[in-house]
Amino acid sequence: MRLDARALEPGRLFRQLKDMIATCGSNEFIEVTVADFSTAQKVRAFASMSGCPVTVEKKEDCIVLRIDENTCGCGR
Q1: Confidence band of 75 (pLDDT split at 50, 70, 90)
Q2: What are the CA-CA distances from residue 33 to residues 10, 13, 62, 76 (Å)?
């Protein structure tokens, strides 16, 4: 699943991300694209609190976070 969050306001971003994490199945991942480091830190913290491992990659004009499946199975 992919979410381009560069133009989303924070409330909408986290509502969509919460829904995506809840429906993310086994061996799936979510790729979130954000515009700045501050938003990337918030997304990373949100996903980590949900039990999901996160990797962050800086691209030329954005930051891409890969959120892997919820390892504890909560929210499913």
Answers
A1: very low
A2: 13, 11, 7, 24
pLDDT in tens, 52-63: 899 999 999 999
Span 40-53, pLDDT tens digits: 999 999 999 988 89
Q: What's at 33, amino acid-wise?
A: T
At 13, which helix (H) or strand (E)?
helix 10-23
**Residue keyed to tokens 């809840």:** 22
Question: What domains can you pick out in the chain, each with its CATH number?
Answer: 2-68 (3.30.110.40)
Long-range contact set of residues 49-57: C-beta below 8 Å, sequence gap at least 24: 50/18, 50/21, 50/74, 50/75, 52/21, 52/24
